[in-house]
From TrEMBL, chains A, B:
Protein name (Swiss-Prot/TrEMBL): Transcriptional regulator
Entry keyword Iron-sulfur: no
UniProt organism field: Cellulomonas carbonis T26
Domain HTH lacI-type span(s) in chain numbering: 5-59
Top-level taxon in the UniProt lineage: Bacteria
MF-aspect GO terms: DNA-binding transcription factor activity; transcription cis-regulatory region binding
Gene3D superfamilies found in the cross-reference section: 3.40.50.2300, lambda repressor-like DNA-binding domains
CDD domains linked: HTH_LacI
Annotated InterPro entries: HTH_LacI, LacI/GalR-like_sensor, Lambda_DNA-bd_dom_sf, Peripla_BP_I
Length: 348, 348
């Protein structure tokens, strides 16, 4: 036993629980001012350095990886992250690692959880999902020298210091481009996009693939604008969007729809046909969820098992005895595939 | 520091890793014979007692709960356990506990994981799902004095020693009875059951509720037998079963179907109608999955959040400073509800 100060020794000296010390470090607003003052004084006295400092001096790894469980929304799109979780858990276990779950209401809450999990349970690393512009989580982890990988690329421009972190992502634009080309092979030319409002990184990426592929086929940009819809991600909004797009002269209306999610695609399906055996327009969803398989919806499928395996490998590279230097090969962009089903009907 | 032998001290003395000691205890077939021999000798020499003995002497709890992640099958029915997992993780965290995941190919594999998780990560307790006849997991945990709760009742007759463990379950028979009564209110009398082959505890429970409710309405037992089908749990098998049941004189064929799962119900729907707006028979599924919501399928809904909260409470009762004695109030049977949708059509 060395005399290095630990969370435990700080807690004992300040006569508070380990949880309280963790709160002082990670969520000070939860701690009464006089306690905050006392614990901070002890931290200074003993020279306690939380998180990364403690981690670097540890010789034993916990072999536990933390993952924030995203809230279930409509249960359709959430299936994707649950599948990723299953694959990650299985493959981590084969490599001798466990997955510990936590929840948080937002990025700041997630960061507070990092601190607490590092302090109290000595997690080795984190897997982050749902990356986005201005994501404060990756900076916090990098600053604290905590190994991590994101499932989702960083959407911000590269940092000026050239630092970059490990990530795995699926190329959404390639998926929607493949969807458009598939529909073009079926004879469609007027192919609409039902996605989310601009500003969501993943959604804009999927829109980009559709847009480029349709423009490449000779459609004029002004025509395209009329077929581009951004709505909230729900079955009802998908149905409304389709109804609006189809409400015009028949020779200008889209004959096919590429959608940013299976929820939206399901709405489009419901609005445009009586059932899969009586099609009027072609529909392609995104994520190949159980719902898509159940109703015969063609959908872009993410290689989730491969994403989990690659993410895990990028983590293990950082956790090994001689961590590998950060290079471009710690960025993995996977291509999705197309699961073709009954909703792929030829152009009229 | 007391001198009580630990996994760590055994590992050091035998000059092997902690993992190897754990394997010796839990998965000896993985260890080379000479290593096995040496480690066992050290265990005897120092008097190391794994699992429960170590646990009882520990003063600090890890506040970590283990849960085996079930393999994803068709992604439809798996949604139920994923929802339970989400609710358990959220509510455990509020109470200061974390959920750690693991996987296993079968009961024996799950038991080996218990041992390893107790040894290496000092988990406090386990939540078990998918209980069944002759379940060896609960006996192992009870024998090793490890706190646990099952989501799923024990299906074996009570032990002769009167021991019983904490469990939460949802009353499947009540759910299918409610489904039958709902269909009877819509004027149906010939109500078939499409379930799994006899011998699955959960499936037999659901069949029982249907059977009793139909018999109670005056249908003769010999009539009933013709409407009772047991098939594997898939959309295709559900469709085949419905086609077979409907292939006879029209005045004897069922006009409504109660199914043991949404997968089966989806198959029945596909086989019996062109779409939800053009119904020919009524269909009720089980589990109220996202697919049911998406296609307008009436379905029996399990109160999964309540199940998770109650299961957690039963665990915390065992983990508190003065564990509560085992009484009948550590058995919780919840009633499901019926989510009524377009597939609830009146009798012709």
């Amino acid at each position: 036993m060395d005399a290095r100060p630990t969370l435990q020794s700080v807690a004992e000296r300040a006569a508070v629980s380990r949880q309280t010390v963790s709160n002082v470090l990670n969520a000070p607003h939860l701690v009464r001012p006089e306690t905050l003052e006392r614990v901070r004084q002890v931290i200074e006295e003993v020279g306690y350095r939380p998180h990364s400092a403690a981690r670097q001096m540890r010789t034993r790894r916990s072999r536990v990886i933390g993952l924030r469980l995203q809230p279930t929304v409509d249960g359709i799109n959430g299936a994707v992250l649950d599948q990723f979780l299953h694959a990650l858990t299985e493959h981590a276990q084969v490599r001798g690692y466990r997955v510990m779950l936590f929840t948080a209401p937002d990025d700041e809450g997630e960061i507070a959880q990092y601190g607490e999990l590092l302090d109290t349970l000595e997690l080795d690393a984190f897997v982050l999902t749902s990356t986005h512009h201005g994501d404060p989580r990756t900076r916090w982890l990098a600053d604290h020298e905590v190994p991590f990988v994101t499932f989702g690329r960083p959407w911000d421009p590269p940092a000026t210091d050239g630092r970059s972190h490990a990530w795995v992502d699926v190329d959404g634009a390639t998926g929607t481009r493949a969807a458009v080309e598939h529909l073009q092979e079926l004879g469609h030319r007027r192919i609409a996009f039902v996605g989310w409002p601009e500003g969501s990184d993943t959604g804009d990426d999927r829109r980009r693939g559709w847009r480029r592929a349709v423009l490449a086929s000779g459609v004029a940009a002004h025509e395209l604008a009329a077929w581009d819809v951004g709505v909230p991600d729900s079955v009802a909004d998908g149905a409304d969007a389709a109804a609006t797009l189809l409400d015009g002269p028949e020779d200008a209306a889209p004959t096919a729809f590429v959608c940013a999610s299976d929820s939206l695609a399901l709405g489009v399906l419901a609005a445009t046909r009586r059932d899969a055996a009586d099609p009027s327009v072609a529909v392609v969803g995104f994520d190949d969820t159980p719902v898509a398989r159940a109703v015969g919806l063609t959908s872009v499928a993410q290689p989730l098992t491969e994403a989990a395996v690659r993410a895990l490998q990028l983590l293990l590279d950082q956790l090994g005895p001689s961590p590998r230097p950060a290079t471009d090969d710690h960025h993995v962009l996977l291509s999705p595939s197309l699961a073709v089903r009954a909703s792929s009907v030829p152009a009229p």
